[in-house]
Amino acid sequence: MKYNPYLSKPFSFLLNAALIAGLASFTLQDNPNQKPDESRFTPVVVAEGLDEPMVFEPLKDGSVYIVERKGAFKKYDPATKTVNLIANIPVNTKYTNAEGVSREAEEGLMGLSLDPNFEKNHWVYLYYAHPTEKKHLLTRWDLVNDKLVAGSEKVVLEVTTQREVCCHTGGGMTWDKAGNLYLTVGNNTGNQQAAQTDERPGRASWDDQGHAGNTNDLRGKILRIHPEPDGSYTIPEGNLFPKGTAKARPEIYSMGHRNPWRIAIDSKTGFIYWGEVGPDANEDTEIGPRGYDELNQARKPGNFGWPWFVGNDQAFPVYDYANNKPLEKKDPKKPINNSPNNTGLTELPPVAPNFIYYPYGVSEKFPLVGSGSRSATGGPIYHRADFKNPKRPWPTYYEGKWIATDFSRGWIMAISMDENGDYKSMERVLPSYRPVEPIDMKFGPDGDLYVLEYGSNWFRKSDNSRLVRIEYNGGNRKPVVYASVSQKGGTVPFKTTLSSEGTKDFDGDALKYQWKVTSAAGAPRVFTTANPTVSFDKPGVYTATLTVTDPKGASNSQSVKIIAGNEPPAVAVNLTGNRTFFFPDKPIQYAVQVTDKEDGSLAKANAAPGKIDPARVAISIDYTSEGFDFAEVAQSQRSVDASTQFAVAQTLINQSDCKVCHQVSTKSVGPSFHDIANRYKAKPETDRLVKKVINGGGGVWGEVAMPAHPAMSVADAAAIVHYILNSTEKTLSTLPIQGSYTVKIPEGDNGRGSVLVRAAYTDRTVKNIPSQTSETQLILRNPVVSPATAEITQGVDIKARGMGNGVSLMAFANGYIGYKKLDLTDIKQLELMASAQKREGAVGGTVEVRLDSPTGELIGQTQIEVAQPRSAPTATAIQNAGGATASTQAKPASTPAPARSAGPPRIDLKETNGVHDVYLVFKNDQAKPIEPLLSLGSITFNHTKK
User: Fold this and answer.
1) Domains of the chain with bracketed CATH
2) Cβ(771)–Cβ(736) below 8 Å
3) Long-range contact list for 661-667, CB < 8 A, 24+ apart?
4) Model pTM above 0.70
5) Which residues lie below 8 Å from residue 774, measured CB to CB, with a gap of 6+?
6) What pLDDT was estimated at residue 425?
């Protein structure tokens, strides 16, 4: 594996549930030449909370087996929608370098496959690193009633390994029609930016000529064996070396691999496809060519060249480390392995052609693969005939195409071959879905494509690790319905307009609209126009339900409530200065205004009849951690009590597991919130309670321990604790109706959250008509803005990145991104996390800031020059590297440029007030269409110049 060190945010391409209703009787004509609309595909999260998932196997009943690197073997149960542990396999996950330091390796529980006759024989194959001995094992187990039968493990195959340096394990498995099992095995050799061919004594772990290039070694190979009923295996005919060949392992189907990963077989042609993770060099040097990842095809057994060749036969010289000089390069037609670490044949098969190959920079031959971090994974070949009566088969358009992904770049590509199997073309599949480091991908029995997302944390559990099922809806789609009202209530008589704005049908059908207005008294009133105006003459509570139906009978509904006889109050929050962003070092100046037809207004601030008492108005300002869902707060309509002030905390509680053990005023498994508040009333101990929510604990309230919530941010835990400690308050405790508030970022929070300014007022009842609550929310965004949140994009490529750094935007000439309705009041400068890296093929360019359109008023610009990369590694540096090295999976997308004294690029802005659409436009008239100008990670809106 090779990891991108930039974090991707969880994908946002989940469509409205109405789109994924079951197939209707109507079915589209399946046109093999017409690409299906992206709205027909829906990513559905199947399982979350996984810990370094590696491989999965879906079953016909919707359940899925999943293995994790640390040894867990799990199953997703579709009935309970839970992931349950089947077994923990003891595995090794470490290596010890030359200095005796133990570090995480890529090995562990690496592979999983079900026997083709699993439903009858219940055999499951696991590939893992032995916990104490230096070897990887392919084992077969009996899996009965979701339990690994004790004593049933049979060791089918052993691969001898070393644990002095890291990396590359492989672990992909698949089966052909003859019942032969294919297994990918990584080269298990020390990693540097070139090929490892160190022939000095004591450096065997750094000589891949003794591993991937050794015909008598199973590492750096794709193996093909035929498992037998007794747990042994036989050798099928047609492998690379005939049985009985001296100094050659007959299990080898193909050799010369660095890290072959996920493997698939075309059921029609028998061709083998896999992803191949290549070396990390950014440019050609004396020690070899720049690195390439490969998406490979094998039509027959062969030698794919590593460690002497990569890409399209780009050659590495064997390096003479003793004398610090490169030797001559090998002949790809007749490579010779004369390393002292080679125990196999000296003369090797000719190098087979590679299928698709791409470097860190732009690939002119395969431009769609993009640039930056790379880690070719692989994926399945789609054939409709491979599925028996699938519920949701993918369309004929993808027939015979290779659906492949890249772990680091996060795209899914449909690769087309011609009638001979040669490369023809490629195109993106679901570009709006950005998987977070996809580590395995395959079709399930129902025809759905499953994607296993490893998540953004390397060698530890990730909150965004998950299994996703991509469902295709080839039939009629239900309309997506939105119902709203221009005025949700008022004194009678009054009129209001019922609105269906936002309602749509992805099939383009003409829709029928029906509004039904009902109340406890009187007959329903029905309207058959999309946006009728309705009169209310009698006080009461009414429900207006919008039902939308397409010509095929598919319908969907949504309701709104209307209160007649009581005018809703009007609530406003006025801010001094910027109304889009908050700045931690700048206080928020606010003032709340409330008016109500029956109650009066705050302007006459006293408690006399007909006037609004300020104490009845709830005002709260809350910092919320990154990722907080404001929609639930916006949809709530709570009465004015403590819960209004603590709306953020209540939302967090609803989204967590708090209510499993706690109630507000009554004891459950754990103490009530009131009990907790009373215990700590005299001495709140807020900090200790926040740590307890995150870390867990026990012994204070009895035997039941409180579970830990390690994924919860300090800010979220503090909000919940603050609410609990104030849950017994009988009167509303709130901020003043006017004042100044300084935002404090909680310790331990990443500071990328937002601020919610919320004011609410519930008026008095009018006779028997219920009171009405009105509220206003202002969400002040963090001044650091991600390119992924741009509402408008053109001529740019946004891709997922790992390890905590959001997304990366790659800009091309005349491309732009746009943000709608940003308040530029007091914004003096933009600060860009941007660079033009030669490694990514970037050529640099100008970034312009324009108002209201890509050609609107220019208010600032800056030039991004190509950064000079650090010097390429020398042979001496590699020679002195010793056994310690980082995984290729940890290599960044680009080598950082030397530090600039001027700091990040900044754009001073012309003074601009008010709300505008803001565009960043990327220019370079000399750039070719496929050449990126620069990469952009974030934009910071500064209220002072730096």
Assistant:
1) 17-472 (2.120.10.30), 488-564 (2.60.40.10), 582-780 (1.10.760.10), 784-942 (2.60.120.260)
2) no
3) 661/704, 661/706, 664/727
4) no
5) 568, 569, 570, 571, 760, 761
6) 97
